[in-house]
Amino acid sequence: MKLNTSMEVQGELLLVTIDGDLSFDSDWNVLQDIYDTAEQKRLNLILIDMLAAQGVLTTLERYRLGTQSATYLQSRRLNPKIAFVGKPPALDGFGVLVGKNRGLNAETFSNRHEALTWLGLGNR
To answer: Which residue, 25, 27, 63, 82, could crosslink 46 as a Cys pair with Cβ 3.0–4.6 Å?
Structure first.
């Protein structure tokens, strides 16, 4: 099964739902699309729901996603607030931690409610 994404603008939030099998190349392409869409629509709040994603990336791949995300966003002078929702093994927080150590404004959550609260949109 390939990686599928849907993106929806909900007011000031870009809501992204991801399902399917994770792989470094498809994950990076999806992240770039998300960042580019947020920039085009001038959105600073992003929720990426990965609860339906499957698979495990290597430690190096998760490290690279974190570093490349931080570099990509910094090169465009963007600093969105990004909430990742998922569960291990698809999302364990390591890539987010790597990105945060490089200036990425992101956190991981196990459900959408916690993510929306962190984004300041808790009553949705």
So the answer is: 82
Strand partners, 83: 47, 107
In this prediction, residues 97-113 reach a mean pLDDT of: 97
Model pTM above 0.90: yes
DSSP assignment of the chain, as one string?
A: ---EEEEEEETTEEEEEEEEE--HHHHHHHHHHHHHHHHHTT--EEEEEEEEEE----HHHHHHHHHHHHHHHHHTT---EEEEE--TTT--SHHHHHHHTTT-EEEEESSHHHHHHHTT-TT-
Asked if the peptide bond before residue 88 counts as cis, ω within 30 degrees of 0, the response is no
Residue 123 lies in a domain: no
**Total domains in the fold of the chain:** 1
